[in-house]
Amino acid sequence: MKRRVVVTGLxxxxxxxxxxxxxxxxxxxxxxxxxxxxxxxxxxxKVKVAGELKNFEATDYLDKKDIRKMDPFxxxxxxxxxxxxxxxxxxxxxxxxxxxGVVVSxxxxxxxxxEENHNRALKKGFDRVSPYFIPMTISNLAAGQIAIxxxxxxxxxxxxxxxxxxxxAIGDAFRNIRDxxxxxxxxxxxxxxxxxxGIGGFTSMKALSESSDPKCASIPFDKERNGFVMGEGAxxxxxxxxxxxxxxxxxxxxxxxxxxxxCDAYHMTAPAPEGIGGAKAMxxxxxxxxxxxxxxxxxxxxxxxxxxxxxxxxxxxKKAFGEHAQKxxxxxxxxxxxxxxxxxGGIEGVFCVxxxxxNFIPATINYQNFDEECDLDIVANSGRKQELHYVMSxxxxxxxxxxxxxxxxxxxx
Length: 413
Hints:
2 domains, alpha/beta, single chain, globular, 3-oxoacyl-[acyl-carrier-protein] synthase activity, Peroxisomal Thiolase, Chain A, domain 1, fatty acid biosynthesis, transferase, acyltransferase, 33% helix, 13 helices, 3-oxoacyl-[acyl-carrier-protein] synthase 2, eleven-stranded mixed beta sheet
């Protein structure tokens, strides 16, 4: 018999807040976290804007000696994990460490550390790079450092599936708990790719918006959309087996009930025609949850603000939901945060849990121009108060990776 899985803790660092409360308040206030890049000089670059963390100092959370050993993506994941553990009121000393896992994704890993150490090597020689260069750089070290911090000695892994990574991480952790391998897991994603090379690379492949107006750069489903905006941060959930959570009197936000995946197996960056791969992931998630398509109230879409993604995700939703596609609410919070790559699914998972908790559907902010190819019920500009029972979160990544997860209001049968 499959075990039930609940969400008992949340942690987040986003361009609209350095914790869950402030980030969610940013959603409620329709705040845009996109602005002109401050991390480096963009004078000679086409892309000028990104979703950077604001007023963030790692030293407010971590010791300086630890910071020296960690790329920012690891710092972000660790800080959000601390918040999630505290929120879940989880005493990590008293739980079974062998049944406590970490599944945390990063799409790119320590890109900034690669740039910094390569520059140092060119000046001083390659044998003079930081002794921490490799563990600062490789993508799995966020999961590794989090596991060390909390003595999580069960599964500790890092799905590297580009923009689907955070959602795959939550889904993989869910399955491990549901199927009896773990009792508790930290799951989500973290990313810190707002660097000259990161921005330059995505600019070169024509993926980023080159808008000079921060409020018109990330505009998912809008007819004038012209590329995504890079974001950064982390989103972490504590997933827990229901009886384990009840036994320790844990706060329960909601239940997680479904996870679906697929691969387009079509192109290294472009989605498959008609959104067929994304549709399969949603259909698999619905089947996994043993619910009808008509029971989904809201989808937090991948909604990247690229012409191709939003058009084909719309097609995928229609294919997966049939007539109900016109009745369910859809929005993308990437208008608030930009696209946080491997962290996106984690951050958006946090937003979905909060949406269920507050019965509030986040808006797709800065939406102005209707696109007939994105003709769903796009919740535009103002969030919507609505009784929610089931919500879905989608993530679609380069390489054709598609992932869909479903949360359910706890206590409803």
